[in-house]
Design a protein that fits this description.
With 345 residues, the protein is of the alpha/beta class. It folds into 2 domains: 3-137 and 311-344, Quinone Oxidoreductase, Chain A, domain 1; 155-289, Rossmann fold (3-Layer(aba) Sandwich). The protein contains 11 helices and 17 strands. The strands form 4 sheets. Strands 3, 4, 5, 8, 9, 16 and 17 form a 7-stranded mixed β-sheet that branches. Strands 12-11-10-13-14-15 form a 6-stranded parallel β-sheet, sandwiched between helices. Helix 1 (40-47) packs across helix 11 (324-333) and helix 4 (144-163) packs across helix 5 (178-189). The longest helix is centred in the middle third of the chain and has 20 residues, at 144-163. The chain is globular and about 65 Å long. Bound molecules: zinc ion (2 copies). One zinc ion is lined by residues 93-94, 97, 99-100, 108, 110.
Amino acid sequence: MKNQAAFLTGKQKLEIKTCEMPNVSDTDVLVEINHIGICGSDMHIFEDPYHAVKDIRLPVILGHECAGRVVETGKQVTGLMPGDLVALEPGVPCGTCEFCRSGRYNICPNVHFLGARPWLNGAFSKYVSHPARWTYKLPDSMDTIEGALLEPLVVGMHAAGRAGIQLGQSALILGAGCIGLMTLEACLARGIRKIAVADLYSNQLAMANKIGAEYTIHTASENLIAQASAITGGAGFDVVFESTGSQAAAGMTPALVKRGGKIVMVGNIFGETPFNFFQTNAKEVDIIGVFRYRNLYPPAIELCQKGQVDTKQIVTNYFDFTEIQAALEYAVFQKQEAVKTVIKM
Ligand SMILES: [Zn+2]
Ligand SMILES: [Zn+2]
């Protein structure tokens, strides 16, 4: 049996090639991938690999938001069987460092993450071998599209969790891309109702509205600070989630947050950002970092199963694996249309 994978061979260039099957150890499962989401990080690396990751060495296989069907299990694997539909948690931490031992395995310095540093091959591939421990069986009510979307969902859940947002509080989400919308779903599932979402693109705001945002702010035509002030009677928001990854948006957060509130940095911002710490200190604001997620796949599966989140409504486009080049180009260059693009193997 041979595998097939999409290799990033250069700037904005993917090639599907036949390659060897991955090795399946005694504790691994071999998964035939059914669906993979295209993540913002995949888009960044595709657009300009050497700019996004200085030490990248091509070719690499990207992709980490994936789910599929178990086709083989290692000798020591229990609890999973061939035929099971599963989602893969892409980060496999070392299990022994102080961060792993304290449960904060997402900040393990020795983590191996699909399609990321230290350049483990990713999931834009027919078959992936993955530790059974980090592979979750999907309940009958969930398909592998929802399985693949668990990964961005847990990012949103982790952001809401890090914020410790409480019932009755207000939230402003900057950026209505996939992660902003997943943060919205996570806040709604936590019972938060006064939520505003801001974005440059009206299609993404329409999606935020459909999901349940009470307010949307179209930053291409409206003044963000004035609108945020109008919505909150001048007080600002209890929690501001920065999920655009833009320096300009991050720089505005001190003006948008309430006194005593929290700024949660969800988006990855490259380079240095001018930021008014005087203002955040005067308001005694907590600034909170977010890196991926931890311990959230099982509760995320529970939320999907109970219908407390509906992640599939975010998907705007599906492409076949053979069209992966077009899929990445679409996701990167048609942001006014594409919210979430999913590859079907
Ligand atoms: Zn992702
Ligand atoms: Zn570790």
